[in-house]
Write a structure and sequence with these properties.
Layout lengths: L1 H36 L5 E7 L5 E7 L24 H9 L6 H6 L4 E3 L9 H8 L9 E3 L12 H13 L3 H17 L17
Parallel strand pairs: 3-4
Antiparallel strand pairs: 1-2
Length: about 200
């Protein structure tokens, strides 16, 4: 209870500050690459569902062209690959596009570990998560469902896994998810681009 209420947030703040300092050279390189690679802003903002179903704008490095339909999961796009920039392919494969969410963490809108925030219009996922009280905690940069299937998971399975996390939040579980995330990213596991299956989730 103490970990969930106090220590988890303290760890988020400390690691986020350390991340900004250590990763600042990478931020600069990626910003330059994105600007040279395609037209448009460096950062991409998107409405997401946070704690208590409050809305906030998640931050990512832009990986798609500026004419891409907004607020649409990638798996619903026809020929999604045609919208992704050259830099974006690398950023999405390595999950480096997620780095700006460090700012969301510092602002208290997200945690390092938690359920990935749903898009504001992913009503089916939001409703399914209500069954497990998932919408009652801060969303995360990575989570239990992310390391157990990521984009390949059907919505009901994803919500159930997020519910399992809610019941078992601890430092040990968060550390396990953190380490498994690094392993999965290095292997590029679970990423799905394009309209493969209407029941699958996407890289959100």
């Amino acid at each position: 209870m103490i970990y969930r209420k106090y220590i988890k947030r303290l760890i988020d703040i400390i690691l986020a500050f350390i991340g900004i300092v250590l990763l600042s050279p990478i931020f600069i390189i990626l910003i330059i690459w994105i600007k040279l690679d395609s037209e448009g802003p460096v950062l991409f903002k998107q409405r997401r569902i946070g704690k208590g179903k409050s809305e906030f704008y998640i931050l990512k490095f832009r990986t798609m062209k500026i004419d891409t339909p907004n607020d649409m999961p990638t798996h619903l796009l026809i020929n999604a690959e045609s919208y992704i920039t050259r830099a974006g392919k690398f950023l999405r494969k390595t999950s480096l596009d997620e780095l700006p969410q460090i700012l969301n963490i510092l602002k208290g809108e997200m945690s390092i570990i938690g359920p990935r925030p749903a898009l504001w219009n992913q009503y089916d996922l939001i409703k399914e998560r209500d069954k497990y009280s998932v919408n009652g905690i801060l969303p995360g940069l990575t989570g239990w469902a992310q390391v157990n299937g990521r984009d390949e998971l059907p919505i009901d399975i994803k919500a159930r896994l997020d519910g399992e996390y809610i019941k078992n939040i601890s430092f040990a579980l968060d550390l396990k998810i953190f380490l498994k995330t690094i392993f999965n990213v290095l292997r590029s596991e679970g990423i799905v681009e394009g309209n493969r299956d209407k029941n699958s989730t996407t890289k959100v």
